[in-house]
Amino acid sequence: xxxxxxxxxxxxxxxxxxxxxxxxxxxxxxxxxxxxxxxxxxxxxxxxxxxxxxxxxxxxxxxxxxxxxxxxxxxxxxxxxxxxxxxxxxxxxxxxxxxxxxxxxxxxxxxxxxxxxxxxxxxxxxxxxxxxxxxxxxxxxxxxxxxxxxxxxxxxxxxxxxxxxxxxxxxxxxxxxxxxxxxxxxxxxxxxxxxxxxxxxxxxxxxxxxxxxxxxxxxxxxxxxxxxxxxxxxxxxxxxxxxxxxxxxxxxx
Length: 253
Fold this sequence. Notes:
The protein has 253 residues and is α/β, with parallel strands linked by helices. It has helices at residues 7-16, 20-24, 26-36, 40-67, 88-94, 98-101, 116-129, 139-151, 155-163, 180-193, 210-214, 217-229, 241-250; strands at 105-109, 134-138, 167-173, 198-203, 231-235. The longest helix has 28 residues, at 40-67. It is elongated.
């Protein structure tokens, strides 16, 4: 009969195998196995389940940090009663993030304050929970970073930040017009990602008004066509939620 392995030696072996979560919780796992009368196979399954769950949690936390969301939002926290018109079913289906796996795009269109950014962040967070590398940016910040990278010859490296992830979330497209450098760089990102990676874009401008944003009808049309080909337009209508909450605070509600 094999001699029992001392607990300190087991802990050392677990550390050497990089099973750090199991090493930290070994005592409680052994106690649970004894209490529930687990077989050796059942105990091994328990250990592996705990280790995999912890690794998944750590992976999600790392992806969320790397995504650089301005804050975390979820679909559960969204006020579906505020917009006067919103395709809730389409958005809830998108939370499975199958559209990312199919390399499709979502374009949220609506006036300011109806929850476009909240929904985009929530779906980006869902992608992270499904271990999909995600990057969040505003349109203005992305363009500013890319323009700055040209000054130190780092454009290709900077472009990869936006073209490599499984999902790119671009918020607030349309709030400021772009000059030639800006629209050329934006077109590069869209062109590289159009069929190789998924995007979520929020905008307050209908496609027909994108010439105002890009200051060039040909570029505006080319970008819109690339997004529409493998994308879905999600229109949201209503008044500003931020204005509503401000009025409620002023009234002491």
